[in-house]
Design goal:
Blueprint (H helix, E strand, L loop, with lengths): L16 E5 L4 E4 L8 E7 L6 E5 L3 E4 L7 E8 L9 E4 L12 E7 L2 E10 L7 E7 L7 E7 L3 E8 L5 E7 L9 E4 L2 H10 L3 E3 L5 E3 L7 E7 L4 H19 L4 E7 L4 H8 L5 E2 L5 H9 L7 E5 L5 E3 L9 H12 L2
Parallel strand pairs: 17-18, 18-19
Antiparallel strand pairs: 1-2, 2-5, 3-4, 3-6, 6-7, 8-9, 9-12, 10-11, 10-13, 13-14, 15-16, 17-20, 20-21
């Protein structure tokens, strides 16, 4: 078996960042480092004790917020020894007239694929407006796109492209209360790249269909296999056990079955043994994937990211455990 070096874990300070709020809730997020669990603590500023939550997600919505009360939020990976400085948030009086989130369409700048544009539209009457955007990398803060939009639509050019989600919000300059946030929004390249890298639609184990861009932000395994292949039938249960354990841990992991079965009937029977997604047997993309990845034998298991780039071309040889997943995630989405 080929040696696979697991990089040592990097402990980074994490700080919660405000994403959205309404009259009674606030939503915060932090950098997704691929940790198995995150410890989130919150309290009212005047309280002594913290309330602890253990979460798999890097996003949290806190309900029952009290107007005019300051809250503190802090977060760390469950295995980290200390917290970063807390987010201090005083919940505003929103009332019943908070403006709805803007509609946003993102695209590449025509001459530079490292930059994005965002076209925003919203419904409101009081002008001018302040408009902000957020790169949800867990490091960046809200950035002012304009402080004097004179209409209910605008286009912001030259937004740095990153493979993380984005968010957008606005408010009249005369009001301190922001609209609801539009986000998290996946940048367009991830949706386009995943459609091209796999297939436009995928099958679920229950027979329904999902769009491949829904895999954005996940570690994606392409599993080339067939029921007639003895080694495949041996590897599939091991991969299924690993897949289900990662799902239970809340890891952003998905597997896509690319069949080399000889008939639709064989495909249907084999796919019923699998808990993940599949490229439809009758789709052109199934054979195109085999050709593109130069499959010479099965089973073959490859790891790709949201861009469709191959991260590990021989993932079948790795130990199927959480440490391996964390290494894949770091290679997929390290910035």
């Amino acid at each position: 078996m080929q040696a696979f070096t697991i990089p040592p874990p990097t402990v980074r300070a994490m700080r919660p960042i405000l994403l959205d709020f309404d009259a009674t809730t606030v939503t915060i997020f932090w950098e997704n480092t691929g940790a198995e669990k995150f410890d989130v603590q919150w309290k009212k500023a005047l309280d002594e004790g913290w309330t602890l939550l253990s979460l798999s997600s890097s996003l949290m919505k806190k309900k029952n917020m009290e107007v005019g009360t300051m809250y503190h939020f802090r977060v760390k990976a469950a295995d980290a020894s200390s917290y970063d400085d807390p987010l201090e948030w005083t919940h505003p009086e929103v009332g019943l007239n908070q403006l709805a989130a803007p509609q946003v369409v993102m695209a590449f700048m025509p001459n530079d694929v490292t930059l994005l544009s965002a076209t925003l539209q919203w419904k409101a009457t009081n002008t001018p407006f302040v408009v902000e955007y957020l790169i949800m990398d867990g490091v960046s803060d809200w950035i002012t796109a304009t402080s004097s939009a004179s209409s209910t639509a605008m286009k912001k050019n030259n937004i740095p492209y990153k493979s993380t989600p984005y968010a957008f919000r606005f408010r009249p300059t005369a009001s301190p209360v922001w609209s609801r946030a539009a986000g998290p929004l996946l940048p367009p390249v991830a949706a386009i790249a995943l459609t091209r890298a796999i297939a436009p639609t995928l099958l679920t184990a229950s027979g329904s269909k999902v769009a491949s861009p829904s895999l954005g932000g996940k570690v994606i395994g392409l599993y080339f296999s067939a029921h007639w292949c003895g080694p495949c039938r041996q590897f599939t249960p091991m991969l299924a056990q690993f897949y289900q354990s990662m799902q239970q841990l809340g890891k952003p992991f998905e597997v896509v079955f690319v069949s080399a079965d000889r008939s639709q009937r064989d495909f249907d029977g084999y796919f019923r043994e699998m808990p993940w997604l599949a490229v439809p047997y009758d789709s052109e993309e199934r054979e195109a994937l085999e050709a593109r990845h130069e499959i010479r034998g099965i089973p073959t298991f490859k790891i790709i990211n949201s861009q469709g780039a191959i991260v590990d071309g021989d993932a079948r040889q790795r130990p199927l455990n959480a440490a391996t997943f964390d290494a894949w995630y770091a290679q997929c989405y390290s910035t």
